[in-house]
């Protein structure tokens, strides 16, 4: 990017951390509320994790099955020089923990708007990325075990599962903004023009959702020309946009 634009390079991890810090500053008046941030496993890295933990933010995300987890440090019986140990000595294998038959329990939770029961195993571990103890949750699924973490060691498995499942709604917005509105495909050269296009797409997406907020599914869907489609499927964002176009 040309220097005349005054643009400072940042990695995606740094940008994400800055966005969360901005949100935390905006929401600081909610002193009695805890700020939870849910991120994919790609963001479980120090440039993103450490600034947020220093701010007191609780992180929830996905763990790789080969994550370098260790047990908790043993309690020190006698005082010694230097700082106390932060990590244990024994390596924890998530794959072996998932394969072990003991330690599982059934947890009732709300996932994607439905009440379900999940087979879960949870325990405490340490990881050098976080620099402290974290809560690890292993969830049995048909496709195989899923591994999650939470930096709040007092959180339970239900909170972790429900928080991560809530990411699905945000992911759907990302999909609609990119696929329905074509964000990122605009043929503009200036960096500020690119940002303006993103803002425009986000605003029209928001306005379409606002227009369709109180309308019924019958008003928003017309699938006469697609008999292969499921007529009972809830209206997508594309359906809402088509309905608004027809109304205009």
Report on this model:
This protein is α+β, with helices and mostly antiparallel strands. It is 36% helix and 19% strand. The chain contains eight helices and eight strands; from the N terminus they run αβαβββαββββααααα. It has helices at residues 12-26, 46-54, 94-99, 157-165, 167-180, 191-211, 217-220, 237-247, and strands at residues 36-39, 58-62, 69-70, 91-92, 105-111, 114-127, 132-140, 146-150. The strands form two sheets. A six-stranded mixed sheet has the order 1-2-8-7-6-5. Strand 5 and strand 6 (114-127) form a beta hairpin. Helix 6 crosses helix 8. The longest helix is centred in the last third of the chain and has 21 residues, at 191-211. The radius of gyration is 23 Å and the shape is globular. The two termini are 40 Å apart.
Averaged pLDDT: 88
The number of strands is 8
Write down the Rg: 23 Å
Low-confidence regions? none
| Count of runs of 4 or more consecutive helical residues | 8
Query: Which bin fits the share of residues in helices?
Result: 25-40%
Largest sheet: 6 strands, mixed
Arrangement of strands in the largest sheet: 1-2-8-7-6-5
What is the first-to-last residue Cα distance? 40 Å
Global geometry: globular
Query: What fraction of the residues are assigned to beta strands by DSSP?
Result: 15-25%
Q: How are helices and strands ordered from N to C?
A: HEHEEEHEEEEHHHHH
Structural class per helix/strand content? alpha+beta
């Amino acid at each position: 990017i040309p220097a005349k634009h005054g643009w400072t390079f940042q990695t995606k991890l740094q940008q994400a951390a800055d966005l969360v810090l901005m949100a935390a500053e905006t929401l600081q008046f909610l002193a009695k509320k805890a700020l939870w941030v849910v991120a994919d496993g790609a963001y479980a890295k120090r440039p993103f994790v450490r600034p947020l933990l220093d701010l007191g933010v609780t992180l929830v995300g996905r763990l790789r099955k080969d994550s370098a987890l260790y047990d908790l440090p043993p309690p020190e019986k006698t005082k010694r020089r230097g700082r106390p140990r932060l990590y244990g000595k024994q390596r924890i294998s998530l794959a072996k923990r998932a394969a072990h038959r003991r330690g599982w329990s059934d947890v009732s939770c709300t996932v994607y708007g439905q009440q379900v029961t999940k087979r879960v195993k949870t325990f405490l571990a340490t990881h050098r990325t976080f620099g402290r103890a974290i809560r690890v949750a292993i969830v049995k699924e048909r496709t195989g075990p899923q591994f999650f973490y939470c930096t709040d060691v007092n959180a339970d498995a239900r909170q972790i599962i429900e928080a991560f499942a809530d990411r699905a709604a945000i992911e759907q917005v990302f999909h609609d903004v990119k696929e329905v509105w074509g964000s990122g495909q605009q043929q503009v050269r200036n960096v500020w023009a690119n940002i303006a296009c993103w803002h425009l797409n986000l605003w029209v997406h928001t306005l379409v959702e606002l227009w369709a907020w109180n309308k019924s599914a019958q008003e928003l869907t017309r699938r006469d020309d697609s008999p292969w489609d499921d007529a009972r499927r809830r209206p997508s964002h594309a359906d809402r946009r088509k309905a608004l176009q027809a109304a205009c």
